Amino acid sequence: VSARTVAALEAWQVEGGRIVIATGRPPRSIAPSLPSLLHDAPFIAYNGADVRMAGQVIHADLIPTHDARTIVEAAQASLLNYAVGLEINDQIYLNRAPDRPKQYVYTENLLDILTEPVAKILFFPARPDADFERDDADLKALLAALPASTRLMRSNRFRLIQLMSQSADKVAALEVVLAQWQLGLANVAAFGDDVNDVEMVRRAGLGVAVANAVPEVHAVAARITGTNDEDGVAAVIEELLQVGAPAGHGR
Fold first, then answer.
1. What tens digit of pLDDT does each residue of 27-80 get?
2. How far is CA 164 from CA 19, 151, 152, in A?
3. Which residues are registered as beta bridge partners of 53?
4. Structure pTM?
5. CA-based nearest residue to 3, from 234, 242, 240, 210
């Protein structure tokens, strides 16, 4: 986060504005990625599957244990060219070593530890040169037969397939946070760049896509700002502060 963006966020808070972090990341990796200014902000993790305020979980939307076991059993039996991962209680379990450094728990048979609901199920190629655009028939068949309780989230930016609870979404999780403050989505300026931001950007009072966002986010945004390297988020916050947004547009 650039110095300009930190300064804009700090000014936003001084004027009474609130900040919520909404990310696909697991809880354990959020604070290390942020400046200290944002360490106490409420956050939405796992694309909406986990919401925390003041360090406490206030909302969880997880894949039911039985359905997760059904998916993992099929994946481990048929997806021989893919690693399978589970995010459970802020810990990732993998049945194969990843192709880049990562903190994880190796578990040869993920069914051995799958005894409770799951925040995410992940598939990614076991080989660095593999291409999801040439998916084998087994992967296509598995994704076509997902239980109704789950949904597929797939971005062209990453060599990764994520399975979430059917109802887990950043915007649904954001509404949980807003309810704590007796506010609604009309009070929100939301910034996004990838497919997991689409509904949040679409439904916010002001939905903003950064210039380097995927086309799906551009299509629903009310406004396009500069890229992350161009301090696009800071530019919009500075403009909102000039027109008195925290007092007039909402906090």
1. 999 999 999 999 999 999 999 999 999 989 999 999 999 999 999 999 999 988
2. 25, 5, 7
3. 56
4. 0.90
5. 234
